[in-house]
Amino acid sequence: MLFANAGAGDGSGWTLGGWGLAAVGAVLGVVASMWSKAKDVIWRVFGLVIQRIEIPTQSAHDAVTAYLIAHYKRSRNYDRMYGAQWEFHRDGRYGLVPYEIFGNRTLILWNGLVPFIFSNQQEKKTAGKDGNNNGNNTATKIYSTLTFVRGTLNVEKILTAACTARNEMSWANEKAEEEAKSRFVIHHVPKRHNKDDDDDSSSNGLAWYQQGHYRLIAHTADELGKRPTNNGKALDNLIFPQRVKDLIKEIELWRKSRDWYREKAIPWKRGWMLYGPPGTGKTALARAFAEDLNMPIYVYNLAEMGNHELMKAWSEMQMNVP
Q1: What is the mean pLDDT of the chain?
Q2: Whole-number Å distance between alpha carbons of 170 and 189
Q3: 190 band by pLDDT with thresholds 50, 70 and 90
Q4: Contacts from 77-80 at CB under 8 Å and sequence distance 24+?
Q5: Is the bond leading into 190 cis (omega within 30 degrees of zero)?
Q6: Which of 9, 130, 143, 289 would be 61's cystine partner, CB 3.0–4.6 Å?
Q7: How many whole angstroms separate alpha carbon 173 and alpha carbon 221?
Q8: pLDDT confidence band for 67 (50 / 70 / 90)
Q9: What's the CA gap between 40 and 46, in Å, rounded?
Q10: What is the structure's pLDDT at 205?
Q11: Rounded CA gap, 261 and 265, in Å?
């Protein structure tokens, strides 16, 4: 602002106003030049009270998200994310399953009476303050951060507990699937390329609806998934002499005697040759045995394979079928 002195003819009032502007400009210049240093000081002081931890892997992010949702009270004021996904139901139907998903938006959680913030970053953090990264293009992707008052949250304890909980869930699910799943499948060698592989397993062995960062709105995890197959009575649907059907008892005895074979240093192998004219049930009998015993079948088309291909495929089959 300029001040004019109407009673003076020498313009001294204008000179005073000019000096005022110059002083204000100088102060602003000093503040601007020192702002970066002042900001660093402020953040250093702030860092003495507040701590921020970064999580750079997707697996840890998912595990920590599930653990925090299960064990810490969350504030009602947060940005919500909803969705729906097609999934099989245990009753045989296939439909949309609505859910709320956590971990993609910032959450305010409570550790007793002290709040802390869990946020999804999804950002690239380059090495070096100048951003040049010294010619190294490698960057660390930060999936989420935990911001809390120092001394109020044990992040290592949370991460350990989260990984333990995820491991136990994954191992229990793997064991249950191993006991319940049908290993009966027909493998064609060479592989028929017109057949689609039905493999929807995830890296941790859990279906999406079993992940802790999904909150199912209208279903429970027990209501989802493909329903179990038959009870293993395929052999009862075939007409064979009883002595042929009794072979399954011999096969079961062989399967249970693996340790005995090892103790005696005997190769744990057993084979049968089925022969007869076409249409007498050789393939049907082998399929029924495999289905009832929950074992896979390998069908080798020798007309399309040479000796090397057969030996390689046979070795791979022995490694894949313990």
Answers
A1: 77
A2: 32
A3: confident
A4: 77/108, 78/105, 78/106, 78/107, 78/108, 79/105, 79/106, 80/105
A5: yes
A6: 143
A7: 12
A8: very high
A9: 10
A10: 60
A11: 6
